[in-house]
Amino acid sequence: MRSYKAKAVTPIRLPDREGRTEALDAAGHNVFNLDSDAVYVDLLTDSGTGTMSDEQWAALMRGDEAYAGSSSFDRLQSAVADVMGFEHVIPTHQGRGAENVVYGSLLEEGDVVLNNTHFDTTRAHVANQGAEAVDCPVEGAWDRTVEGEFLGNFDVEKGRAIADEVGAENVPVVVTTITNNSAAGQPVSLANIRETAELAEELDAWFVVDACRFAENAHFVKEREAGQGDRDLAAIAREQLSYADAITMSGKKDAIVNIGGFAAMRDEELFEHAKQRAILYEGFPTYGGLAGRDIEAMAVGLREAVEPPYVAERVEQVATLGELLTEAEIPIVTPTGGHAVYVDAGELLDHIPTEQFPGQRLVCELYREGAVRGVELGSFAFPGADRPDYVRLAVPRRTYWREHLEHVAETAAAVRERREEYVGLEIVEEPPMKELRHFSARLESV
Ligand code: F0G
Predict the structure, then answer these.
(1) Ligand 1 closest atom vs CA 98
(2) What range(s) does the Aromatic amino acid beta-eliminating lyase/threonine aldolase domain occupy (predicted)?
(3) How far is ligand 1, taken at its centre, from the CA of residue 165, in Å?
(4) Are 189 and 225 in contact (CB under 8 A)?
(5) 339 CA → ligand 1 middle, Å
(6) What is the pTM assigned to this prediction?
(7) Kind plus residue range of the DSSP H or E element containing 69
(8) How many whole angstroms from 95 Cα to the centroid of ligand 1?
(9) Which DSSP string do the residues of 280-327 spell out, in sequence order?
(10) How many Å lie between the centroid of ligand 1 and the Cα of residue 250?
(11) Residue 394, Cβ neighbours under 10 Å: how many?
(12) DSSP assignment of 15-41, as one string?
């Protein structure tokens, strides 16, 4: 069932095979270098790529563009209070702006931050403060053969052991990321959020929730966690965040906007400190690097995100893509998470060694076969990290129909058919910062 219909559409086209091969060569085998109009189904990210509702478009016109005291800010504040339970809000240009404001206020050189798994930008902001980011995923989070209901969980015992080792006084912040993007978008249980909050309290640390996909996480809690099935989705969404001292939010995910984010917190002093930092990096705290209209659309989207039919259809669509790929005998992480399907390219192209980037080869061939764009999250994107060679196919919110997903599965089936023909890739040009190489490096076949 679909609880919405389209009112505005964007034409897309499938370039012919020759055009796709040319585009891929011109892009140096890096799909970040492709023009978007050469892409037919774009599953690069679910961030800022969703479709706004007519209410959100209408809200754009109400945007109050005042430099200070904008009434759009008041509406964001009231949406964050109602949906997420926080009174103190600082808008930011996107999620990483919120991370800068919060972690820049809480961390110092030599600190250690524990997180179920740091998303790349979170890790970078922790490092930017001279602090160390330590991941505490549960056993099996990286093993696609392990099935579990809450594989995104924080391993509280591991967190405690690390704190014992480095000394609790050096761990000022404990974070949990819901859903756990870096662990295949797997959800985190309410019980686990509570236990992680208790760990933070034990350590006398701030407990921060990275709430980017909080609505999708709430949906999984309702579906899977004992005793949660009869509860209101909105109540679960709020309870998840009720244990946090602060949250960072990318509105580009579960506030269903193309740009925007915010930080929110309970403590007055932290709020004052973070506001000063926001003035420096984002803008005056009632606009935070956004136009009033963007804030207005984010306030509406935040409320829509916890409407049960929307989230159920969203998560179901990701599951459908997973089922179609499984039918096509493509190895994926199951159960699928909230926003994306993760394909095990290391297994699908097991004749390509990890140093020759099997994931990037898969990304290239998905483009060559069907102009489908995914993203590599393995040995190419994370040099030196001990990660499986996964390719993420992230589904934008309210944007594609089943036919698009069928095209993706047919494309993947065609790639599988030809897999013996594929060779590995080598980097021929890369930027100075290795951590950022996947955005701009150029590659060639070995
Ligand atoms: N935290 C998580 C868990 C994220 O997934 C992202 C972004 C951010 C923070 C940063 O938010 O992009 O608004 O600055 N994830 C995108 C992705 C980029 O493709 O997964 P941002």
Answers:
(1) 14
(2) 42-410
(3) 30
(4) yes
(5) 12
(6) 0.97
(7) none
(8) 6
(9) HHT-STTTTTS-HHHHHHHHHHHHHHT-HHHHHHHHHHHHHHHHHHHH
(10) 6
(11) 23
(12) --HHHHHHHHHHTTT-GGGS-GGG-SE
- Taking the centre of ligand 1 as the mean of its atom positions, its distance from the CA of residue 119, in whole angstroms, is 7
Atom 15 of ligand 1 has which residue's CA nearest to it?
47
Q: Give every residue of the chain whose pLDDT is below 50, as ranges.
A: none
Going by C-alpha positions, the residue among 336, 356, 350, 340 that lies closest to residue 416 is 350
pLDDT at 432: 87
Sequence-ordered alpha helix ranges (H) in 85-155: 95-106, 120-128
Q: Choose among 152, 143, 146: nearest CA to 186.
A: 152
Q: Of all atoms in ligand 1, which is nearest to the CA of residue 213?
A: 3
Spatial contact of 95 and 261, defined as CB atoms under 8 Å apart: yes
Tokens of 7: 């009112």
Q: What confidence score (pLDDT) does residue 433 get?
A: 80
Who lines ligand 1 at CB under 6 A? Answer: 45, 47, 94-96, 119, 121-122, 177, 181, 210, 212, 250, 252, 261
Do you find a cis peptide bond into 331, omega within 30 degrees of 0?
no
Q: In what order do the strands lie in the sheet containing 246-250?
A: 88-92, 261-265, 246-250, 206-210, 173-177, 112-115, 132-135
Closest atom, ligand 1, to C-alpha of 121: 10
| Structural domains in the chain, sorted by start | 17-39+308-445 (3.90.1150.10), 54-305 (3.40.640.10)
Q: Which of 49, 93, 94, 119 to mutate to test the pocket of ligand 1 (most atoms within 8 A of CB)?
A: 119
CA of 120 to the centre of ligand 1 (A): 8
pLDDT at position 401, please? 96
Instruction: Give the closest residue (by CA) to ligand 1 atom 12.
Output: 95
Strand pairing of 112-115 and 173-177? parallel
Ligand 1, atom 19, lies closest to the CA of 45
Q: Ligand 1 mean position to 248 CA, how many Å?
A: 10
SS3 content of the chain, % helix, strand, coil (to 5): 45, 15, 40
ipTM of the complex: 0.99
- Ligand 1 mean position to 214 CA, how many Å? 13
CB atoms within 10 A of CB 147: 11
Q: How confident is the model at residue 1, as a pLDDT?
A: 77
Q: How many CA atoms lie within 13 A of 171 on its CB side?
A: 27
